[in-house]
Target: Tripartite-type tricarboxylate transporter, receptor component TctC
Amino acid sequence: MIMLVTLRRLGLLLAFLYVAAVPAGAQTQLPQYPSRQIHWIVPYTPGAGSDTVARLLAMKLSESLGQSIVVENHGGAGGAIGTAIGARAKPDGYTWTFGSDPPFTINSHLRKLQFDPMKDFVPVSLIARVPLVLVVNPKLGVNTIQELVALAKKHPGDLTGSSSGNGSSSHLVLELFNSTAGVKIMHVPYTGQAEALRDVLAGRISITFSSVGTVQSHLESGRLKALAITTDTRFGALPDVPTIAESGYRGFEASAWHGLLMPASTPAAIVTRINDAISSALELPDVSSRMSTLGYIPIGGPPDKLATLITNDSAKWGKVIHDIGIQDK
Model:
């Protein structure tokens, strides 16, 4: 049974990587691309971090590609509504989908979707990783991960952790931390990160995992205290905050991500063209500076880098969801 599952995963990954593996000389020669307006679907509401990043890159890519790029917001269902629209689009390179962890690596383990994250899309480029920072109210009286774990073990079930919703990235990272550290910090879901953070600020909730940009001002004012970063290396904007891995939990790594995908069967030459354009845009000083302010790490790289990330994160979060028994609510 284990071998069958492994072979199935390998088959999916190989299919997912196919377009990235086509040699440049073997790619079909296409008419000039792009020759008209491009539509970029962002499956979240205007003003969200993903929307901000998409609009920043759309402006830069419009300049380099010589065509306008219209960002279209289709929020709802944890990104599933907009992502389904992107999956059904014509594979001609004129409809892009802004990808992130919930619709591509989490939601399929919680409920049936109207699209297959692996089969219905081709990865174009990873845009950014989004580190999460574990923050507490200073009144909790802990200054390190070790002190938090000691407190949680001394009072099992008394500490609470908020998230932006059941099955969200912040929820799964909390459960991964519980499992890794051998503690039970009780999950309290909210309808969004702003609400989840509000009760930590008020002292009604013990901890939360949040993107850096969301909590930066509260860290600077002293209303929140950062204990650790979830990525495997420290984050430049918080150089004095250790990683969870270096705090005694070797191998711990988790983060959200943003990327660009197109419908399956999009010509490889188009994928390569846009991948190159994104890589160039991410190297622009004003783009990297703005993304750092938002709490993101610009990445770029070839399409197979995003494909591998999606495959690995889907396996990681699927295991957490099934081990904990998380149900869609």
About this structure: Residues 303-324 form the longest helix (22 residues). The chain has two domains: 2-23+34-129+256-324, 131-247.
